[in-house]
Amino acid sequence: MVTTGCIQPPTRDPSRDADMAQSKELLSPEVRTPVDSERKDESDPPNPALKDDVPKLSSEIPLERIQADNRLKQAGAKGLLAVASFLYLPKATDAQLIEALRFFASADFSILDSDQTATGREAVAHSLTYKRGEVRVQAGRERKVHGPGAQRTKFL
Asked: 69 with 57: CB under 8 angstroms?
């Protein structure tokens, strides 16, 4: 059977177009306002302390590790000083000290002034005398990355 002429698609019902426009309008998402990062009232939880983030660098939960790392980096010099003060704590585990030293090795010391840099170097030098070898090795690696600078670092 042979067909001659042009085959045209069937004409659309105009009421269907109106239904589609109405459903698009009904199903479109609401426009969201920007998120306010500041606390609005007392029901909002407080921001976690930086000293609580340092032990989380060695957490078994990857999300906690990433969040702690991000908060410490965003804090800048305060985050580095929190890590430095953590290196002196006797309750810190070996894994926590190793991760704190790795964070220190990846940090940018250009944001610190000379007193803060000296504080950080003293904390790492304190870790060089730790009883476990893994911690001492990581402290040595941190010193290799940032170097002793104008200060002498004692190696045992």
From this structure: yes
Distance CA 53, CA 79 (A): 9
Domains of the chain, residue spans = 50-146
Residues near 127 by beta carbon (within 8 Å), at least 6 away in sequence: 87, 97, 101, 135, 136, 138, 139
The DSSP result for the chain, as a single string, is ----S---PPPPPHHHHHHHHHHHHHHSPPPPPPPP-S--STTSPPPPPHHHHSGGGG-SSHHHHHHHHHHHHHHTHHHHHHHHHHTT-TT--HHHHHHHHHHHHHS-GGGS-HHHHHHHHHHHHHHTT-SSHHHHHHHHHHHHHH--TTS-----
- Structure confidence at residue 36 as a pLDDT band (50, 70, 90): low
pTM: 0.64
Q: How far is 117 from 114, CA to CA, in rounded Å? A: 5
pLDDT digits (tens, 9 = 90+) for 79-126: 889 999 999 998 989 999 999 999 988 888 888 888 888 888 889 888
